[in-house]
Amino acid sequence: MHDIGSLSQAIMPYAAAILTVFLSYRRGSKEDENDRLAKRNKTLTERIDQLTRENDKLRKELDKK
């Protein structure tokens, strides 16, 4: 029984370190994905605004004819 206690005491710091790295990586991956999606959202919003302006311009030209 003493050997199991010593073994768990020796392993626990390494297990905690591995768990910490894993959780940090998972959190970082989610943040990276959020950043990527935010950038994509911004790009698409800018494109929608551009197309809306072009559409308005073309409608005005069409109305003049």
From TrEMBL:
Q: What stretch or stretches form a coiled coil here?
A: 27-61
Tell me the keywords, alphabetical order. Answer: Coiled coil, Membrane, Transmembrane, Transmembrane helix
What domain of life? Bacteria
Q: Which residues cross the membrane?
A: 6-25
Its recorded name reads Holin
- The record lists the organism as Lactobacillus helveticus (Lactobacillus suntoryeus)
